[in-house]
Amino acid sequence: MECDVLVVGAGPAGAVAALYCSKNGLDTVLVEKNREVGLHAGRRLDSSPDTNFELSKIVKELKLRTEHYVRTSKWFHLPSARFFVLNSEAGEYYFKRGYDENSFERSTVASALDHGCKLLLNTEVKQVRHDDGKDCKVLLQLRRGGETEKAQIIKPKVIIAADGCHSSLHKHLNLKKRVYRVGRIFGVTGEGFSDDGSSEVYFDANAIPGGYFYILTAKSGLSTAAIVMPGEIDLKKRFYAFVSKNMHDRIRHVENEFSGGAVIFKLNRLRRGNVLFVGDAAGLIDPLLGYGMAPAIISSYLAARCCVDAVRGDDLNISSLKRYEKEAEVRFKRVLAYLLRGIFEALDDEDLELVFDMMEEMQRRGVDFDKLSNFDMKSMFKAFSAFCEKLPKSAQLLRIVLKLRMSYGRGM
Ligand SMILES: Cc1cc2nc3c(=O)[nH]c(=O)nc-3n(C[C@H](O)[C@H](O)[C@H](O)COP(=O)(O)OP(=O)(O)OC[C@H]3O[C@@H](n4cnc5c(N)ncnc54)[C@H](O)[C@@H]3O)c2cc1C
Questions:
Q1: What pLDDT is attached to residue 397?
Q2: Which residue, 273, 293, 353, 362, has fewest beta-carbon neighbours within 10 Å?
Q3: How far is the CA of 272 from the centre of ligand 1 (A)?
Q4: For residue range 7-31, what is the model confidence (pLDDT) as tens digits?
């Protein structure tokens, strides 16, 4: 079998890539190792930021299904009962994940099929032979009920690798990757955990060291509450202990539990010949807050766009594929996020209180947090210095600075 593009993995990234390619006339084959799309993700809501309105543009162009667009988030520090509210013009999208018919991945794959994409379920990549894009053969293995059924050779012009953070293509192509950290998450999905639709994030350095607890509620009333922490720990007990202490009256109508992990790594290349890596397979999860949906959607959109340009002529245009690598590398530089994550993990509750004081001061001085994503840092630093002048003891500031420096060394 021959095709223009083979997309490996029908998660959010693969689904978006398959939709873009098929919508733009490419002969597209999407392979998924599970027997159904969406089985790999627990039923839940994911939120991801619409930084610089990049997601909005893609959501509108491809008519992607979303559950909510939220412009208000509330941040709480439980031990001190402090909180602040952020209102921003560019908000967060909520996406429904999992195996329900109307989940993000299932509805996106359904649109791709409407545009002529072929979907092979129960199918994994067994072997890849490629010669820097000139010749490419992929051996696909079909399974039924855990048994290997038959093998098939497919010759795609381009491969989009969207098979998640444990991508089989890393192994097949012998890619080097540097793993930075592993995060765990445990949560529940149900009805009406909060009522006004704004997202809520809770910090408590004793109960959730280096992590946080969040609640999201979609317009339909569907709600997710979850706890996120670094390291390979079992979070279920911690989640229920946290809920019974702080939220027992809110997390009540639970329908299902979910759990998972995120491996944060850097690939030394996002392209190898005619293979483009996108989403979690490209290691694009945000190391600070764990957002993976926005990078998955944006990177697969960029990759698919370059792929459409690359296969338009008679010969495969490798320079269009190289463009993806450049665009993605510029777009997903995450040095600041690694740095902030290192700092965040080092904070105790006293430090967190100071951070909340600082946020209040900045808001009082009119810092527009909405603009911070555009690196409008000048007014923030002004307000930060004003806050420092107010500190009761300069020793306290010294302590923060020392911690920041220590975690800078550790976090990178
Ligand atoms: C519990 C949990 C909660 C999360 N919450 C959020 C959140 O609130 N906001 C947010 O932005 N991000 C969140 N994330 C991260 C987000 O889910 C991921 O970043 C996102 O799913 C990445 O999409 P992807 O398509 O790149 O990879 P995946 O979602 O991992 O999809 C990969 C797909 O490839 C398939 N596959 C795997 N191997 C093969 C193979 N060899 N052959 C064929 N198919 C294969 C899998 O079955 C799957 O369908 C969360 C992650 C977890 C685990």
A1: 62
A2: 353
A3: 21
A4: 999 999 999 999 999 999 999 999 9
- In the reported structure, the alpha carbon of residue 39 is separated from the centroid of ligand 1 by a whole-number distance in angstroms of 10
Q: What is the pLDDT of residue 339?
A: 76
Ligand 1 centroid–CA 41 distance in Å is: 7
Every domain of the chain with CATH number 3.50.50.60 lies at 2-43+98-175+269-333
Query: What are the tokens at 212?
Result: 């946080």
The span from the CA of 337 to the CA of 360, in Å, is 22
Q: Quote the ligand 1 centre to 120 CA distance (angstroms).
A: 18
111-120, 141-150, 314-323: which has the minimum mean pLDDT?
141-150
CATH number of 2-43+98-175+269-333: 3.50.50.60
CATH number belonging to domain 69-93+180-263: 3.30.9.10
As for the ipTM of the complex, it is 0.99
Task: Fill in the DSSP letter of residue 104.
Answer: H
Q: Does 372 score more than 60 pLDDT?
A: no
The boundaries of every CATH 3.30.9.10 domain in the chain are 69-93+180-263
The ligand 1 atom at the shortest distance from the C-alpha of residue 163 is: 34
CB 292 near ligand 1, within 6 Å: yes
The answer to whether the Cα torsion of 216, 55, 14, 331 is positive or negative is negative
Measure the CA–CA gap between 195 and 223, rounded to whole angstroms: 10
The protein residue whose alpha carbon is closest to atom 5 in ligand 1 is 46
In 10 A of CB 351, how many CB atoms? 17
* Binding site membership of 32 for ligand 1 (Cβ less than 6 Å): yes
Q: How confident is the model at residue 409 (pLDDT cuts 50, 70, 90)?
A: very low
Q: Are 265 and 178 in contact (CB under 8 A)?
A: yes
